Amino acid sequence: LSDSSIRDRDGNSALMWSCKWGHLSIIQRLLLCTADLFEHLHKPSGNSLLHLATSHDHIDIVKYLIVQFH
């Protein structure tokens, strides 16, 4: 993981995709490598990491993110 700020053409970062698809171990690793976490909090559409995890029923990720941001 060299640059966690890279986004696809729709503005999604690896962290956003990991929240959507339920990859907790990747999320944990990305958060360790991310210098500016707040740049990943929202997609251009307005959805947050929590929105992405919640809308795909990844409750373990929701709980993890809440602890991280609290």
Helix and strand pattern: HHHH
Low-confidence stretches: none
Q: Averaged pLDDT, please?
A: 82
Sheet with most strands:
none
Number of strands: 0
**How helix-rich are the residues, as a percent range?**
40-55%
List keywords for this structure.
mainly alpha; 70 residues; globular
Summarize the structure in words.
Helices cover 51% and strands 0% of the residues. The chain has 70 residues and is an all-alpha fold. The N and C termini lie far apart (25 Å). The mean pLDDT is 82. Helix 1 runs antiparallel to helix 2 (24-33), helix 1 (14-21) runs parallel beside helix 3 (49-55) and helix 3 (49-55) packs antiparallel against helix 4 (59-69).
Give the arrangement of secondary structure elements.
Layout: H1 14-21, H2 24-33, H3 49-55, H4 59-69
Helix pairs in contact: 1-2, 1-3, 3-4
In brief:
The chain is mainly alpha-helical and 70 residues long.
